[in-house]
Amino acid sequence: MTLMTKFLGAAAATALSAGAALAEPALIFDLGGKFDKSFNEAAFAGAQRWAEETGETFREIELQSEAQREQALRRFAEAGSNPIVMTGFAFGDALGQVATDYPDTDFVIIDMVVDQPNVRSVVFNEHEGSYLVGMLAAQASQTGTVSFIGGMDIPLIRKFACGYAEGALAVNPEIEVIANMTGTTPAAWNDPVKGSELTKAQISQGSDVVYAAAGGTGVGVLQTAADEDILSIGVDSNQNYLHPGKVLTSMLKRVDNAVYQAFKEGAGMEKGFNVMGVGNGGVGYAMDEYNADLVTEEMQSTVDEAAAKISSGELEVHDYMSDDSCPVLSF
Amino acid sequence: MDMYLTLIQLLDSTVRLATPLLLACLAGLFSERAGIFDIGLEGKMLAAAFFSAAVAALTGSVWVGLLAGIAASLALSAIHGIASITFRGNQLISGVAINFLAAGMTVLIAQAWFRQGGRTPSLIGNARFEPVTLPFAEALQNVPFIGPLYYELISGHSVLVYMAFAAVPLTWWILFRTRFGLRLRAVGENPAAVDTAGVSVVGLRFAAVAICGVLCGVAGAYLSTALQAGFVKDMAAGRGFIALAALIFAKWRPWHALYATLLFGLFGALETRPDVIESLIGMKVQGQLLAALPYVMTVIILAGFVGKAIPPRAGGEPYVKER
User: Fold this and answer.
1) Inter-chain CB proximity B223 and A193 less than 8 Å
2) Does A154 touch chain B if contact means CB atoms closer than 8 Å?
3) What is the mean pLDDT of residues B285-303?
4) Residues contacting residue A225 through CB under 8 Å, at least 6 positions apart
5) How many CA atoms lie within 13 A of B7 on its CB side?
6) d(CA A219, CA A236)
7) A213 - beta bridge partners?
8) What DSSP string runs through A57-122?
9) Is the CB of A45 inside 8 Å of chain B's CB atoms?
10) pTM value?
11) Which of B235, B239, B241, B277 to mutate against chain A (most A CBs within 10 Å)?
């Protein structure tokens, strides 16, 4: 019954708010949902930070199906929301169609490039962040083998794997890097059981640090790594707290910063291509009380040195998506 | 010796991956042998996975969680039974509805209860099934050949694995050696004859659907409380459908169900070790191929290339006493 009331309440709230036409910014969450402990939740945190600082409000919607993408975009644009931020590469096609119809509205898309005059495309240099955690992994490894588990086998995830392998090899040219993908369908994002089996298989091949870029599948990877007493590396949000003392670090993708910036700059922001890398705090590695004992100062200084080189352009990490190949890892 | 240990590791993984398939396959076997097609195995497993993890997290006892998982699966079975037995609805549509219901309901309730994005909190201590170490496993660990076999492969699984394997002979005995089993198989072949003999077709079919619910409940609980330490949305990840494929592959027979699910489990295990395949056959095999194999093999069987898969004759048809 309570669920039913929630449904009705939510429906009524949407119906009421639909009429108001204010120039509030809007945020659209992708299918993963607002509280996914990862990507979307980071976007929400950024919006929330902006709302607390400015005391203003923003509008939001959690998509429930593919068909709602364009509908949600148009609804917010019609209602006068500006700017409209959306999280996820899957919005690419819908935004491509909608953006031209609302030339006065600013759109921000995260993780995808849409070439329109009123769109800001925010992309992250995940390979740079992965490079840094790869360096940490190689330094923490006792066995000389580290491993990677990806979710769905798409170029974006290979980009993570390639950066990770490069980082590990930069520290120890002898190191062996094992990379596995969970699958080729979206089900691969939510198969923790298979994530566990992959982890166990990698452990039997000698790996003692495993990096998971696999959504819900990563939950199984981190769990098994903790159970089998090896180290793991989380992704997107800071996942160090999940298994204190067992998660070496997390590769941070500061989606919150991207959303915060977009909201702060508001309508009339700078459009075009916006790259969030190591240099401008877009990606990085997580340090907190849960992994303080795992990462020595020496490890940290090596990584920070590399980060400085990446920011200055002295060191360039290979981007898998630039040429669909990885010089150090074969898939 | 190294190769031998790799083999043990692969088989160990096979057992873990095959167990949920085996339980779901036996569940489908009971249901389909009684003439009720059930493509809702996936949904029932998913619901059971969620409720067992959620209740285990709330109570701290995995056994209470297991019961809750079975209860959730039974509730969905009851819906399937009422729709397809009592109201003579289409069994496939009812099954599809159950899959959708479970996929949406689990995430919704998880979000309402735990606020962790459709997950349950991580289970610790008594809230999850720990591996069982069989007697003498530690002592025999270093004996060559038998040691690793016994310690790694046979010992060290969760109690649900042993229950699943014990369920195979039990299923065979119930179906082929008891009066209940004979009648159950008969309602799947010729319900009118069973009715003429004065036995309730509806009662038997409900019993079969209930057994199916219990087995799916154990399968789901195994996923979230033994293999994993918590629920993640859609974590059944198509295992209910692979179990259905295994059921057809096994031609609705218990022992063959064991072989089929072990084979499919082995494919899953091999998928995690591309290096082993590469060293065995000397070329790289894409994991996708192995993932697709269960379905490909089922299609081959269905097409009649390797024997013929004949489903129970009255399967899928609601029983109408009088027209």
Assistant:
1) yes
2) no
3) 80
4) A199, A210, A231, A232, A243, A246, A247
5) 8
6) 13
7) A150
8) --EEEE--STTHHHHHHHHHHHTT--SEEEESGGGHHHHHHHGGG-TTS-EEEESS----TTEEEE
9) no
10) 0.86
11) B235
The dihedrals phi and psi of A112, each to the nearest 5 degrees, come to -155, 155
**The pLDDT value given to residue B198:** 92
* Element housing A178 (H / E): strand A176-183
Owner of token pair 């877009």: A282
pLDDT, tens digit, 9 for 90 and up, residues A92-119: 899 999 999 999 999 999 988 889 999 9
Q: Which residues in chain B have Cβ-Cβ distances shorter than 8 Å to A191?
A: 235, 237
The H helix count followed by the E strand count for chain B is: 14, 0
Checking if the pLDDT of B316 tops 90, the result is no
Check: CB of residue A181 under 8 Å from CB of residue A148. Answer: no
Per-residue pLDDT reduced to its tens digit, B23-77:
999 999 999 999 999 999 999 999 999 999 999 999 999 999 999 999 999 999 9
Tokens read off for B293: 């194999």
Half-sphere exposure for B213 (CA within 13 Å, toward CB): 22
Q: Do B107 and A33 touch (CB under 8 A)?
A: yes
Q: Give the residue ranges of DSSP H helices in B115-156.
A: 137-140, 146-148
Name, in order, each residue with C-beta under 8 angstroms of B143's C-beta and a sequence gap of 6 or more: none
Q: Which two tokens stand for residue B210?
A: 């209930």
Q: Does A12 score more than 60 pLDDT?
A: no
| Among candidate residues A219, A181, A172, A175, the one with its CA nearest the CA of residue A201 | A181
Nearest-angstrom CA–CA distance, B315 and B32: 6
CA A46/CA A260 separation, integer angstroms: 5
Strand partners, A124: A276
The 10s digit of each residue's pLDDT in B224-240 is 999 999 998 889 988 99
Q: Name which of B9, B117, B230 is nearest A204 (Cβ-Cβ).
A: B9
DSSP secondary structure, A191-224, as one string: -HHHHHHHHHHHHHTT--EEEEE-TTHHHHHHHH
Closest CB to B13 among A190, A197, A220: A197
Q: Find out whether A278 and A307 touch, Cβ atoms under 8 Å.
A: yes
Considering only CB atoms, B234 lies closest to which of A36, A183, A187, namely A187
* Per-residue confidence (pLDDT) for residue A21, from 0 to 100: 43
Is A183 close to B223, i.e. CB distance below 8 A? no
pLDDT of residue A5: 58
Contacts of B229 (CB under 8 A, 6+ apart): A223, A227, B122, B123, B124, B127, B128
**Sheet containing A272-276, strands listed edge to edge, beginning at the edge strand earlier in sequence:** A59-62, A26-29, A84-87, A107-110, A119-124, A272-276
- Chain B residues within an 8 Å CB radius of A205: 273, 275
Asked if the model's pLDDT at residue A18 lies above 70, the reply is no
Tell me the domains of chain A and their CATH numbers.
Answer: 5-124+256-278 (3.40.50.2300), 126-252+296-323 (3.40.50.2300)
Helix then strand then coil, in percent of chain B rounded to 5, is 70, 0, 30
pLDDT for res B3: 82
Question: ipTM value of the model?
Answer: 0.90
Closest chain A residue by Cα to residue B20: A193
Q: Which of A190, A193, A228, A237 to mutate to test the interface with B (most CBs of B within 10 A)?
A: A193
